[in-house]
Amino acid sequence: MSSLVELLGRLDDLDRDEVIYAARPWTRHSDAACQVEPDGGSHAPSGLTYLLEVELVHDVAEVWSSWRDGRTPTTEELADAVIHYATHDAYLEPEGTR
Description:
Elements: E1 2-3, H1 4-8, E2 18-22, E3 31-36, E4 49-53, H2 54-66, H3 75-88
Antiparallel strand pairs: 1-3, 2-3, 2-4
């Protein structure tokens, strides 16, 4: 199984229809997996909980970048932003603006 940061390092290879699951408490190094949601509901891999849809992860990355003058986030920064979004239903603002 991959860690969240490892999985996000392969973001461009993931299908936008897939869902990312991760072990709680969510950290950069949480075990994580990605799969297509079956019709009729969630079937999280054993020991993992829903984190975010891959499509939303792309949105999180785009907003993170646009709020930081176009800089691309590292996988660690993206993991932090994804966890923040999944926890707070809000994008991670740049330091000094909160």
